[in-house]
Amino acid sequence: MRIVDIREKTFPIASAIRNAYIDFSTMTCSLVAVVTDVVRDGRRVVGYGFNSNGRYSPGALLHDRFLPRLRDAAPETLITDDGNNLDPFKIWRTLMTNEKPGGHGERSVAVGVVDMAVWDAVAKIEGKPLWRLLADRYRGGEADDRVFVYAAGGYYYPGKDDEKLKDEMRSYRDRGYRVVKMKIGGAPLPEDLRRIEAVLSVVGDGANLAVDVNGRFDLETAIAYAKALEPYGLFWYEEIGDPLDFGLQAAMAQVYKHPMATGENLFSMQDARNLIRHGGMRPDRDWLQFDCALSYGLVEYLRTLAMLKDHGWSWRRCVPHGGHQLSLNIAAGLGLGGNESYPDLFKPFGGFADGYAVEDSWVRLPDTPGIGFEAKADVLTVMRELAE
Ligand SMILES: O=C([O-])CC(=O)C(=O)O
Ligand SMILES: [Mg+2]
Question: Catalytic residues per the record (predicted)?
Answer without folding.
Answer: 183 (acceptor), 321 (proton donor/acceptor)
